[in-house]
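As a warm-up, study this chain.
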Amino acid sequence: MGIYELDNEEAYQAEVSQCVGVTGYHEWFFLSAMAEALNLKFSAFGVDFEGRRLGVVPMLFRRRGPVSTVNILPIGCIGPLIRGETLRGGLVRELLAGVEPVLRDHRTIATRWAFSPGLNVSSEHLAMPGFEVSEWENYLIPATKSVDDCLKAMSRRRRQSIRHNERHGVSVEGSSTEEITRWLPEQVTTAYKRQGLEPLYKPAEIRLMAERLATDPRMLWRTAKAPDGSVLGLIGCVIGNDRLWAWLMVGPPVPGISAQTLCYWDTIKWSLSRGLAYDMGGVPNEGIRKLKISLGADPETAVTALRVRPKVAYKAGIALYRGVNRLAKRRNG
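Now compare it with the structure written out below.
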């Protein structure tokens, strides 16, 4: 078993190009932006086994006092990335076993391996001690569909919503840097509070990510606007080799207007006209599932393996981390 670190973008991307199921979220530019914004350590390793290269394992470590977690993030698929012969040969476990020394060095007590949607990674491949394997739904509009086919596949209500919004002068256009870096971060936080949920990103984190990614040519940013130019919604997507990956979409509720539907419809047309499938991501709740189905998206399965080792130590580490933070705050106060 051999392991080697990929410590620069050129080496990393060269290895990733040999793997299957590569998503926009696996790109060096996106992972490094996330690491900087969330104060994580980004490392990536290639693994060899019996003279074969198995794949690439990107890892984003978060320190929790004396311990760390890896890839516990609000992104569906971070990796590992697998070569086709590795998948066909049933060597996924060997790939993951190759990075165990790195996890031990970082005192990693919570590990999440999230595989790309559509890959034929079975529970049998991941039957490793301590890991709990689960499946989740991802929604996709295939590149083989035409724009007309997609429109016909939508529910009648969704088509009516698109026509209604367009008749009322709502349009979608390229986002400005100011809209991405100033309007977007506040809306992300507000959207989660409105649902009574803890935000996936802190305001400072999403602001830093927006600043890093706002002008990157590998991102697609589109804004829905009212006739008076006011912003109704904004969507950010990662442009991959074979899919457009819908990463983030926000906008306040507006009576009679569905900016969300128009943003999706605009980016669906953008991707299909360029021969790209449109990946709409997962479904955090039943309302989002119904929306994506009504837009004509097809479900596919993605697999995640999670290990918390041991659970008692993990809880103790988190408690210690929080206790130290509270003590520091009292001292600083």
